[in-house]
Structures are given as C-alpha cells and as structure tokens.
Specification:
Strand content: 5-15%
Strand order of the largest sheet: 1-2-3
Largest sheet: 3 strands, antiparallel
Number of strands: 3
Shape: elongated
Radius of gyration: 19 Å
Order of helices and strands: EEEHHH
C-alpha cells in the first residue's frame, strides 16, 4: 500500500476532527493540516522518558523522583506498581513496559489497576 501510494505515514500528530463535509477527518500535524478518509493512530509512548511530552513527567525527572529503566519507561516496584523513589505514587500502563514488557492489553491494565487498588487500600487502612 505504501509503494502504490494508498497508505501514507505522517509524523508530528497534533489533533484530528471531523471535516466540514462530515465524511473525512481533518488531521493537523507539525507540517500543517490534511484531509483523510481513514486514519490509523499508531503512536506509542516513547521508551525514553525524557522524550515524553508531559509536564508531570518532565518535573518528576527534573526533581530526581523518577528515573529511566534501561528497557523503557520508569523504574518501579513490579509487585506494588509504586515508583522506585516516591512512596505513595503508582504507575500504570506504557511507563511500566521496561519492567513488565506486555502492558497495553486491557486485561493486563485491569490486573495492574487491581494491584494498585489493593496498595491504596492498604495505605488507607
């Protein structure tokens, strides 16, 4: 599909909204806006935490409260999902991929959320 021009890859995604005709999407990227009939969002969280566009992550890194795991995401306790250096702060999802690897399926996220829920209850009681 790439070779015959039926599929194109664009970087720098900013937003998408319905076009005025209601049959296409207006997608804004770092290079402008383009109309598309179909869009596949294949973005992922960067493995390098300093490349994540998040003021929270940036501030936690700057304060030395979180640090990069060698295989992506952040250092965390795999049994509790608590951040390595911040008691009471938990992590879920893509930022755990360095330690847990497979973290994007809904079923895995549910299990991880249950682990965090139990930890929060343990803190409260």
């Amino acid at each position: 599909m790439l070779q015959v021009g039926e599929l194109q890859i664009y970087a720098g995604y900013k937003s998408a909204s319905p076009a005025l005709n209601g049959k296409a999407l207006l997608v804004k990227t770092k290079n402008g806006a383009t109309l598309f009939d179909y869009v596949i969002d294949a973005t992922d969280t960067p493995s390098e935490i300093t490349q994540i566009d998040s003021p929270l992550i940036h501030n936690l890194v700057q304060a030395g409260l979180i640090r990069q795991h060698e295989f992506g995401g952040v250092e965390m306790n795999t049994l509790t999902h608590e951040l390595e250096n911040v008691k009471g702060m938990f992590i879920l999802g893509h930022l755990t991929k360095g330690k847990l690897f497979y973290v994007s399926a809904i079923e895995r996220l549910l299990v991880h959320a249950q682990i965090i829920s139990r930890q929060l209850l343990a803190y409260h009681y």
